[in-house]
Amino acid sequence: MATSQPNNPPCVSPSAVGFHITDPQTWIQTSHLAPVSHDPDRRHWATQEGADQITQMFPHTPAGIVSLNLSIYNKSRDTDRICPSCRRWYKVGESEHRYESFEEFLRREYSSSPAIDSEQREEQSLSGICSQLCMDALVEDPEDAERNGGKELRRSDSWLMRRTTTAEEAKGGVKVEWERIGSL
Fold first, then answer.
1. Sequence-distant (≥ 6) Cβ neighbours of residue 155 within 8 angstroms
2. Is the dihedral of CA 24, 26, 32, 33 positive or negative?
3. Average pLDDT value for the chain
4. Does residue 164 contact residue 178 with C-beta atoms inside 8 Å?
5. How many CB atoms lie within 10 A of CB 157?
6. What is the rounded distance in angstroms from the CA atom of residue 172 to the CA atom of residue 159?
7. Which of 66, 105, 150, 158 is most exposed by smallest CB count within 10 Å?
8. Which helix (H) or strand (E) holds 81?
9. H/E segment holding residue 91
């Protein structure tokens, strides 16, 4: 893992694959957030009405609140994303990349020629999940991840990524599946 750099905010950590948000609640308060989209469908998610539509999908726990905030961020920005699995900060279409400095990372431009395949790019745009590895980490059945990655729910052949509360969670264990919210 890359060492901490002096100009990084304390809530952002460099790695061999980019920068990761280590404290989303602090990061949400920084000046580094991308502006809310001008597109009405994306902008809607940054409103109270939009947030209310998806709030019930997340548990009322500290981790659930963080997941809700990241989901709202991802849905309300044009290209900026935070992966809900590894919390890598990236732009839609970007592959993993090591940056020499936080300043270089912030100066990067959005490329309309993605460095990844079209299904992965669509998944990044819909859910914020940055890679197949992160998709596999969030779903119980890897075949579901393979079959449904990059597809909206209405086009999928099974329910993917449903958030459930289980008896294991009540005992401190975690079982997480996420319901795709791309077509809400």
1. none
2. positive
3. 76
4. no
5. 9
6. 25
7. 158
8. strand 80-82
9. strand 88-91
